[in-house]
Amino acid sequence: MSTQVGRNHKETAAPPAKGDHAHAPWKASVVAELALVITNEAMNDEYRHLVVSCGEEAARAKPGQFFQLLCPHPPTGEQPFLRRPMSLYGADPETRQVAFLYKVTGAGTRGLDTLKSGDRLDIMGPLGQGFVLDPRWRHIVVVGRGAGLATLAPLAQAAHRVGTAVTAILSARRPELLVSQETFAHHGAEVIAVTDSQASSGPANVERILRQLIADGRCDAFFTCGSSRLMRVQQRLAHEFGLPGQVAMEQQMACGIGLCHCCVRDFRVDGEIVNRRVCCDGPVFNLMEALP
Amino acid sequence: MSTAVTLSVRIGDLHLRNPVMPASGTFAEDLAQVIDFNRLGAIVTKTITRELRNGNPLPRVVEQPGGMINAIGIPSKGVPDFIERTMPHYAPYDTPLVVSISAPTAEGFASLAAELTIPGIAAIEANISCPNIEEDGKAFAMRAESTENVTRQLRAATNLPLWMKLTPNTGDMPDVARAAEAAGADAVVIANTILSMAIDLKTFKPCLGNIMGGLSGPAVKPIILRHVFQCAKAVSIPIIGCGGISTAEDAIEYLLAGASAVQVGTATFLQPAAMTTIIDGLETFCIRREIPRITDLIGAVVVEEADEPDVAWLSPAS
After folding, report:
1. A184-211 tens-digit pLDDT
2. Residue range(s) defining the domain that contains residue B74
3. ipTM (interface predicted TM)
4. Contact (Cβ atoms closer than 8 angstroms) between residue A164 and residue A156
């Protein structure tokens, strides 16, 4: 099954055995650090691409994980107080960089918009449970829309690395807003762009494409983010064909590390509705347990 | 250099290695990824209740300049889950474990305290102040009589150190603190969040699912600091200060105002290592100022006779 995304960080964060603590060096597995802004540039009319230089741990972030960014105060006079969760767009352990894609929509992102090369940005992460790729899968299907396109982008490289073929169905209002198209294409994925302006992004058309992929034996698992409607289509197909799937979910957060219970969502688990924290039980969840 | 300063404090009979601990509701075992729990003065759990609680509808938090308003609604998995699943996480640490409890009635508080008077629990913090628990934000700690009643019943139910967490949403905090002391509390925690609200101008709806919530963060610090100062003059039991502490300097202000220890909450949401950073800062401050014991700072605010604030002019009657 596709969902080893439960609570495995708990094990890695096991407390030290009694008596060991006196001299055993204690090491944090999550840190906040002042990263160095490399670039912060417009990618299109809506999205901006932020690349920062960071520590080793942060640069080892996995697809589907996220960071909590302490946004600078924008010149509008707004005072963003809480950190902002931002899903990983790219990570390079060799150059020790992480990248984010964001749309300026509120006080926090207006603050991020002010960052210039050479500025410092307080980032905390990587956080949460990311996507899990089962090496037995020969072909996966990625379905994303809106901000979900950024969240899914790092899967392209990760799948390529383990020799899993990818078909990416990328959805946006207009073709120029399809942000991760090149990333997927660059890593050898087949990209199917669907847009509102071309009237190709409706759930019925996406379902038709997915059914064809399943029929062709090119869908061993679903990966999705950014659209409840498209998630429901995949849930239905996953159920019908007995396929696994993973979904990255969003929620307003405060702490980002499981303390405050602000980011809970309902999930259906074994017929019961349960509350889970998106920040630490997710943000990637079993597709079949997610509720819109 | 660490041998030069004694950071340990006493809260009644309970010895803490330093005066810094989490505020209830802002701490969980997950924080072990970020800080070493053996460095903390104490561990304070999220409030637990006897009944299972899902918590409030979303949104549960809205930010404000210098703070946030929350209405989480105390999601609780009940007592057996706490004992079987949460407590073992803290067993490896030799840091005192303080369990925060809440109940809808004084009897409920007492029976919950009795049930949690077990090995592994170092003290009980009775959350008689959370503004979200009761209709319209009312709570036991809004009145001295109800505070005295619930404290007395708790005192009879447990021999563990008993801390009463008070609310600033009352007209006379010193009076409420005196009631807690008279009924046998070992300490008072001052204070919980300040009842507040925010409205979304796009929808004209309250920003929180629960309509009202509790304000916390740096914005509340001067207000709660003043409460600590006033309560310190009213009671002789230790005060644990809690309100907007994000730095060692904030913590020192609280100690000077009369707190024997401090709780750090919202700051952890922004900087998850805030508590250990504060502990380091307290030590550095004491070394720089040649203060041998952190306890030397408790209540050491210098108020000259002539500087005694004349509060009469603040009263509308005068």
Report:
1. 999 999 999 999 999 999 999 999 999 9
2. 9-314
3. 0.90
4. no
Tokens for B150?
A: 């619930």
Calculate how close chain B gets to A80, using CA atoms only, in Å: 7
How far is A15 from A24, CA to CA, in rounded Å?
A: 12
Token duo for residue B131: 């503004």
Q: List the alpha helices (DSSP H) in chain B.
A: 78-81, 87-90, 106-115, 144-157, 173-182, 221-234, 248-257, 266-270, 274-288
Inter-axis angle of helices B173-182 and B144-157, nearest 10: 30
3-state secondary structure of A204: helix
CA A283 to centroid of chain Cα atoms: 7
Would B239 be classed as within a structural domain?
yes
Contact A261 B272 (CB under 8 A): no
Mean pLDDT, consecutive 10-residue segments, chain B of 318 residues? 81 97 96 95 96 91 96 92 96 97 93 97 92 58 93 98 97 97 98 96 96 96 98 98 98 98 98 97 97 98 76 58
Name the residue of chain A whose CA is nearest to B56's CA: A262
The answer as to whether B244 is a domain residue is yes
**Nearest chain A residue to B60, by CA:** A262
* Inter-chain residue contact A254 with B28, CB threshold 8 Å: no
Q: How many structural domains is chain B composed of?
A: 1
Q: What is the CATH number of the domain that holds B207?
A: 3.20.20.70
CA neighbours closer than 13 Å in the CB half-sphere of residue A130:
24
The pLDDT tens digits for A254-282 are 999 999 999 999 999 999 999 999 999 99
